[in-house]
């Protein structure tokens, strides 16, 4: 069993270059993601950024993005 990486300090999360999809609604109902200095990608709710953050390795994020682009998660959307 591998030991999970520690969470970054709040200052690193606050200064991270967060990106939100241009497909977000006017009320910002979307997630946002940011690359971190240690190579992981942080993901959080853009409406409630202090509610928690999930961290993924670049390999995990690459697998997720490939699945999204292939339509594997289309049924999770509001029109799916």
What do these coordinates show?
The chain is an alpha+beta fold. Helices cover 22% and strands 20% of the residues. The protein has two helices and four strands; from the N terminus they run αββββα. The chain has a four-stranded antiparallel beta sheet with strand order 1-2-3-4. Strand 3 and strand 4 form a beta hairpin. The model has no long low-confidence stretch (mean pLDDT 85).
Q: How do the strands of the widest beta sheet line up side by side?
A: 1-2-3-4
Q: What is the mean pLDDT?
A: 85
Count all strands and give the number: 4
Low-confidence stretches: none
Count of alpha and pi helical runs: 2
Q: So what's the oligomer here?
A: single chain
Strand content: 15-25%
Q: What series of H and E elements makes up the topology? A: HEEEEH
Question: Could you estimate the helical fraction of the residues in percent?
Answer: 10-25%
Q: What is Rg?
A: 14 Å
N-to-C terminal Cα separation, in Å? Answer: 36 Å
**Which structural category fits the helices and strands?**
alpha+beta
Task: Identify the overall geometry.
Answer: globular
Described by strand count, sense and barrel closure, the largest sheet is: 4 strands, antiparallel
